[in-house]
Design goal:
Layout lengths: L11 H10 L21 E10 L9 H19 L2 E11 L5 H18 L2 E10 L3 E10 L16 E4 L5 H10 L8 H12 L5 H10 L4 E4 L4 H12 L1 E6 L7 H8 L5 H6 L8 E5 L4 H12 L4 E10 L3 E4 L5 E3 L40
Parallel strand pairs: 2-3, 7-10
Antiparallel strand pairs: 1-4, 2-4, 5-8, 5-9, 6-8, 7-9, 10-11
Helix pairs in contact: 1-3, 2-3, 2-6, 4-5, 4-8, 6-10
């Protein structure tokens, strides 16, 4: 293989060139390390996430899968209030990966950085194997105010969320039930947005940090139930929320209306949390924090519960009928079921044309 990847086995330098050529936002040079200059006393935030072929929905292309994985990594930065400055990717690819497949990775990087800001700092670590991309993101905070962390919540603090839950899991339930053709065109477009077009809430995180009033913050890129228990573990006190106060995304309501999935399942116990932020704030400061978020995002956060004075780890949801349910962190092992189907519709975003190979359905034990 000369300048083309693929044919039999890809080669490192042509593969790296294919990725970098598709990225308009990158730190020039071929160094093994990226160099960042930060203000004296500032804070550098680092997080990473991984997205592999096993996470692809049936028929998903490389560009879409990698873009989703990068956004998941940036969601951790959103919860710290940090300003994104860069991204490093580590790629594992099978022998038959082509130049077009590697270029699709670069397109995904460019898609994500166009939303988050920052540069591709380093993208030359490649290895062979089943496809996967690990994304390491870096952000900075000024020395004048440290980043948001998850461990500062105190008894009596309100628990607040940045937006509706259940969108991704409601969409997943509808697709797993092959119910797409039962939706109106408008409902389908909403499902697409919630399943494929979710974004890390960087603006909301920056707004929360700017107030200096938020006691704890974490992102919900797993389930809301898991995030609540993580909050409880970090602060050492039990937490409780009221289900009736949790904002519900449209796809979760569609799934409930069609008898496919309950709101409790999609909103609380699903696989994803739509990358919403969950944070705590003293009651006296709640209005000021809400105003700050609204000015930056056009959307007001919603109070859903409180941190109790009871020491220990645990989370309880008060149901609509007044009963209580203890939340858990475990999640289903199978994501995309054998019946997964968009029906007669196309599962993809017109703003991002498909690029790279498509992944076959993964079969895993439930």
């Amino acid at each position: 293989m000369k300048e083309q990847c693929g044919k039999t086995r890809w080669e490192e330098f042509p593969a790296i060139r294919a990725i970098r050529a598709a990225v308009g936002r990158l730190d020039h040079g071929w160094e093994d390390t990226a160099c960042l200059q930060v203000k004296a006393g500032g804070h550098v935030l680092i997080s990473s996430d991984h997205m592999g072929a096993e996470h692809a929905y049936p028929g998903e292309d490389v560009r879409s899968l990698v873009r989703r994985g990068i956004f998941e990594a940036f969601s951790d930065l959103a919860a710290s209030g940090a300003e994104p400055v860069g991204l490093q990717i580590d790629v594992r690819a099978p022998d038959d990966f082509t130049a077009g497949d590697f270029r699709a990775i670069g397109l995904a990087v460019d898609d994500a950085l166009a939303v988050t800001g920052g540069l591709l700092l380093q993208g030359s670590n490649l290895s062979r194997g089943e496809f996967g991309v690990s994304s390491t993101v870096l952000g900075v905070c000024d020395a004048s105010r440290g980043p948001l962390r998850r461990h500062g919540a105190r008894p009596g603090d309100l628990i607040v969320v940045s937006g509706p839950f259940g969108g991704w899991d409601g969409a997943l339930a509808l697709l797993n039930a092959a119910a797409a053709d039962r939706l109106t065109d408008e409902e389908w477009e909403t499902l697409l947005a919630e399943f494929l077009h979710y974004r890390p809430e960087l603006a909301a995180g920056a707004a929360l940090l700017s107030t200096g009033l938020v006691s704890a913050c974490l992102d919900c890129n797993d389930s809301l139930a898991k995030s609540l228990i993580d909050l409880s573990y970090a602060c050492g006190h039990r937490v409780e929320i009221d289900l009736i106060h949790v904002p519900v995304a449209p796809s979760a309501r569609y799934a409930e209306a069609l008898g496919i999935a309950s709101l409790q399942r999609t909103v609380l116990f699903g696989i994803a949390g739509d990358d919403r932020l969950l944070f705590t704030v003293p009651p006296a400061d709640a209005e000021e924090v809400s105003d700050a978020v609204f000015r930056r995002t056009g959307r007001r956060p919603v109070t859903v519960g409180r941190v109790t004075a009871q020491a220990g780890v645990g989370a309880v949801v008060r149901n609509r009928d007044g009963t209580g349910t203890n939340l858990r962190r475990d999640q289903p092992a199978t994501v995309y079921l054998p019946g997964f189907s968009p029906g007669q519709r196309r599962l993809g975003l017109t703003a991002y044309p498909s690029a790279g190979r498509r992944f076959a359905p993964q079969r895993s034990a439930s």
